[in-house]
Design goal:
The complex is a heterodimer of chains A (about 230) and B (about 325). Chain A has about 230 residues and is of the alpha/beta class. Helix content of chain A is about 35%, strand content about 25%. The structure holds adenosine-5'-diphosphate (ADP) and magnesium ion. Chain A: Belongs to the ABC transporter superfamily.
């Protein structure tokens, strides 16, 4: 069952054509990984899904519904959460305020909160601290936790391991595995080790086009293809 | 050195600046009674400027909108309040404090209602088409300021308008050899009350949380499912109403107003917002108090420098802290 489908998506940013032809089918459940070199168009793809850039009409469907032309707010309300590359933490707000902002009604579901604390114990510890005072890894945890403070259908996560220490990346992988039990994750990564341990399905984007799509298992087995598509940077 | 700066920031950091300014002024002025009078005047002026500037700061913080027409709300507020006060002259002069208050409340309410309505109109008709286009924002909002000034000229005429004060705010308190104008104390207290209310809304309510988050990162608030543009019109209207209220209070403070008021206040208000740091209500208060104190101290110590003093203050602050004293975003 396809949850999110991109069909020949093209996106221009101002006068620049950034995405030329992006087609992927994200099935419901599990982790779908989008790989690609720096500047390939990964972030632009996620922002186009979120309505933060305008993709070509009719190119994004979510549960059969056309998302193109919808306001970002309405896309979010369909149950799609976004963890941007820069994390989008509100530094002047406390951890709690960052979290409560992401709830629809301004109140926490205690059970959900326990679930979040179990995933990311550090957040409980720094609950009433301003978010700017968190470390990089804690900020990333906050960004992910904020995205799932209420049940979502799909989470778009942009390079969550960037700049994080290996031990923290391991924590993050465990948390993602847990989250993927109940939510579909579309994960953008350059860290192939991290991505291969999580993803069931994957695609590689290069210069605004999908260069390869398939299962992670097949891709991992094909080292020639990896070299060709991801080059030495991986 | 680092020890000194750590101690200073523990004691209040940039919030110590007004204290430092008034201590230096105390030494330079010499006469304690003049110093008290000037300080009260400076604080009152600062609070009124805060009312005028707070909306501008939030509007810029939330939507990156530069509204050079903002002070039109100030001057209209001043003239509307002046007209209402003149019209209710009988109540103002009455011995009954209740009647005095009623007249004053009527004037303030008229100014606030005007600010709300004009803010709504201005945001919908003038600002909305030029979101995210700073050059056109500057041109169109400056144009609006000129139109507003001409409208005031057409409605109220060009000669200075004198503003009656209610009886109970006339005169001064004499404490020893210190005189404190009652209207100034009143302006300070009213401004302080508005600041506290604004602070509470921003820090204790869900709307306030959305505003603070939106000032930091509008896109992210929208990605979380909340419409900033719908919030923005509310903030714009509230900011315009506060500016009109500030203008109304200013009219009673100056007791003589001219149509040039808007253009004069525009400069002051922008300086305050830039000094304080765009998008921060605490910063705006700090900037406004500094400007109010400096204007009064320098006006007393070196009257010829009075006009330049605000600009000097702004340049000094920007050289020291390019984002203002207390910017909203960390
Ligand atoms: N705001 C922008 N304006 C112009 N070009 C942009 C903008 N953002 C990204 N691009 C260009 O689009 C291409 C893809 O960028 P991006 O999607 O950020 O890549 P990735 O996330 O894969 O590193 C790059 O060539 C980048 O220079
Ligand atoms: Mg990117």
């Amino acid at each position: 069952m396809t949850l999110l489908s991109l069909q020949n998506m093209k996106t221009n940013i101002g006068q620049y054509a950034v995405l030329h032809d992006v087609s992927i089918e994200v099935p419901e459940g599990g982790v779908f990984v989008l790989l690609g070199r720096n500047g390939a168009g990964k972030t632009t793809t996620l922002r186009s899904i979120m309505g933060l850039w305008q993709p070509s009409p009719g190119s994004v469907t979510f549960r059969g519904r056309d998302l193109t032309g919808l306001h970002t707010v309405d896309i979010a309300r369909l149950g799609i959460a976004f963890v941007p590359e820069n994390m989008g933490i509100f530094g002047g707000l406390t951890v709690e305020e960052n979290m409560i902002l992401a709830t629809a009604k301004g109140t926490f579901d205690p059970k959900r909160l326990t679930y979040i604390y179990d995933l990311f114990p550090a957040l409980q510890k720094f609950w009433d601290k301003p978010a700017w005072s968190l470390s990089g890894g804690q900020k990333q945890m906050l960004a992910v936790a904020r995205a799932i403070i209420e049940p979502r259908e799909l989470i778009l996560i942009d390079e969550p391991t960037k700049g994080l220490a290996p031990a923290i990346i391991d924590n993050m992988a465990a948390a993602f595995r847990e989250i993927a039990q109940s939510t579909t994750i579309l994960l953008v990564e350059q860290n192939f080790e991290f991505a291969r341990s999580l993803g069931q399905n994957m695609a590689v984007i290069d210069d605004g086009r999908i260069a390869h799509a398939g299962t992670m298992q097949d891709f991992v087995a094909n080292s020639a293809l990896q070299d060709q598509l991801l080059g030495l940077s991986v | 050195m680092t020890q000194i700066s750590a101690t200073l920031s523990r004691l209040g950091g940039v919030y110590l600046l007004p204290v430092a300014v008034s201590v230096i002024a105390f030494i330079l002025i010499g006469a304690p009674s003049s110093w008290v009078t000037l300080t009260v005047a400076g604080l009152a002026m600062g609070m009124m400027i805060f009312l005028m500037a707070s909306g501008l700061s939030l509007v810029f913080g939330l939507m990156d909108v530069l509204n050079f027409g903002h002070s039109a709300f100030v001057s209209f507020g001043a003239f509307i309040a002046a007209s209402v006060l003149a019209w209710l002259g009988g109540w103002l002069g009455a011995d009954s404090i209740a009647l005095n208050m009623l007249a004053l409340m009527a004037a303030f309410t008229a100014a606030i209602l005007f600010g709300l309505a004009a803010g709504w109109f201005f945001e919908t008709v003038v600002i909305r088409p030029v979101y995210a286009d700073h050059l056109r924002q500057i041109l169109i909002t400056m144009g609006a300021l000129i139109v507003a000034e001409q409208a005031i000229l057409a409605i109220w005429g060009g000669s200075p308008l004198s503003v009656p004060r209610p009886n109970f705010l006339q005169g001064s308190w004499l404490i020893g050899d210190v005189t404190i104008e009652i209207y100034r104390a009143f302006a300070f207290l009213l401004g302080l009350a508005v600041y506290i209310a604004l602070y509470a809304v921003l820090n204790r309510t869900r709307i306030g949380l959305l505003i603070r988050a939106g000032v930091e990162n509008r896109e992210m608030v929208e990605a979380l499912g909340f419409r900033i543009d719908r919030l923005f019109i509310g903030v714009f209207m509230a900011g315009s109403a506060l500016a009109s209220l500030g203008g109304a209070m200013w009219a009673g403070y100056e007791t003589l107003i001219t149509p040039a008021l808007g253009a004069e206040m525009m400069i002051v208000v922008f300086i305050v917002v830039i000094i304080g740091g765009l998008g921060s209500i605490q910063g705006t208060l700090l900037g406004a108090i500094l400007v109010g104190l400096m204007a009064n101290y320098i006006g007393f110590l070196a009257p010829k420098l009075a006009l330049a003093s605000n600009m000097i203050l702004m340049m000094a602050v920007l050289l020291w802290r390019p984002n203002g004293l207390r910017p909203a975003v960390k």
